[in-house]
Each structure stands twice: as C-alpha cells, then as structure tokens.
Amino acid sequence: xxxxxxxxxxxxxxxxxxxxxxxxxxxxxxxxxxxxxxxxxxxxxxxxxxxxxxxxxxxxxxxxxxxxxxxxxxxxxxxxxxxxxxxxxxxxxxxxxxxxxxxxxxxxxxxxxxxxxxxxx
Length: 121
Hints:
By secondary structure, the chain is mostly beta strands. It has one domain. Helix content is 10%, strand content 44%. The radius of gyration is 15 Å and the shape is globular. The two termini are 17 Å apart.
C-alpha cells in the first residue's frame, strides 16, 4: 500500500471529465469560497468531490499504468477507469510530490525542484 503526498498541481479524471483538482477545496456546492474558507469540509463537499470519495471508497484503487516525464509530472491510471495527474508547475527547489509506503521498510520516492530522489526519511 502506498500514499501520495502532493504539494503541486493535481487532478483526478474519469471519462466524464475532471472529478477533483488542486483548488476544489475552495469550492462548496458550486460556490467559490476562497482560501480563507473554514467551515467543516466533510459536511460541505461539492458534487465533484462526492464523486471522488465514491470512487475512492467503492473498491481498492490499483495502478494499471504509470507515465512520467523528466519535469516531475506523472500520470497514474487506475483500474476504476480514472487517473491521477501530478503536475509540478514551478521551478522552486521544493518537494512537488512524494510516494510513501505505508510499510516502514520501503524507501520513499521524492520529486522536488530540479531533481528526483529516493529517501529513507
């Protein structure tokens, strides 16, 4: 089992279009709320985010295919006819995304700034 921690742009897409993306946490029921919005998000999920949670909780997501480029972007295709795109959109030397194991003996995979590395932290 793995987890992805993304601090870059991302989106989850299915055949109907974008289900959720980086800035969707600022939108509740179709209304833009801005970055200072503080209401309980669990009660106020947008219809798109409800669809995302439905996808995530209906079955195990199994990665079928991975496509990556030399700039740190990655496209993960899942068995449920949806995919995740991670898209670093700046030139800063900061972590864009990392793949973390839920088991302790796996080395993390980190994509940051101008380099990609494997780390044990």
